[in-house]
Design goal:
Elements (H helix, E strand, L loop, with lengths): L10 H6 L16 H15 L6 H8 L3 H5 L5 H11 L14 H18 L15 H12 L8 H30 L4 H5 L4 H7 L8 H7 L15 H20 L1
Helix pairs in contact: 2-3, 2-5, 6-8, 8-12
Amino acid sequence: MEDETLGGLPRGVALSWGLIKEPQRGPKREMSIQKIVESAIGIADKDGLSAVSMNRVAASLGFTAMSLYRYIPGKDELLLLMQDAVCEIDLLTAHEITDWREGMREYVRKTVGVFQDHPWFGDIPISGVPMTPNNLGIIDWVLRTMRGLPLRDNEKMSFVLLLSSYARVYGMLQRDMNRAVQSGISPEAFGGIPFTSALKILVTADRYPDLQPVVMSGAYTDEGQNEEDVINDFEFGLERILDGIEQYVNRKK
C-alpha cells in the first residue's frame, strides 16, 4: 500500500528512510525494525529466501507474527528492507580511487560480492528503480567515479546500468555454480573436464564448424590448458566493458 502523506512512496521505501516512526507501545527494547531485518537476513542466508516468513522471523525473536506487523506491514516490505540492508557495503573513498576504471572495477566486484555473501539477493525480483538509501548510496558512489568524464547524465546512468547488469549476471552465475558444488557436483565435473573425450567425439566439424576446434583444443572445458592460457572470465569481461567505455569517452573529448 502507498501512504499519501509520504508523497506516494511505497510503505517499504518510507520505512527504509525512517519516515515512519516505530511503534511507541509494545516490546520496544526487544523488537525493532533493524532486529527484524537482521533476523530475516540470517534465516535467508542459512535456508534461502523461501524460508523467510513473518511467522518464522517472529519466532526467531521470541514474538508472535502479529508483533512484527506493528513494525513492518508485510513480507514484501520486509524483503525490500533486507535487500537494502545488505547493500550497505564498504567502498573505496574518493581519495582512494586512482582512476575511473579502478572505481568501476571496485563497484562491480563489490556488487558481485553481495550475490556471493547473500545468495538469496538475486531471487528478489526487480520491481523498479532503486529508491532505498543504501541502494542509492551505491549509485551515488559509482557516479562519483565518472565526475571528470565528459558525459551527460543519461550517459552516466546508462553506464551504471551496464555495469550493474554485468555484476548481476556474473554474481548470479557464480552463485549458481557455488550451489551446484555445494550440492555435491565436483568443480571438475561442473566444468565438463571429465566429459571432454566424449565431447570431442560428439562435437563434429560438419555439425559444429566453429565450436569443434575450440572443443578439440581443450578450451571449452579448460582441459589440458596451461596456467597462462586459462582466462579469468569475470576479469576479462569486465576489462572489455571498461575498454568500450574508454573508447566512447575518448571519442567525446
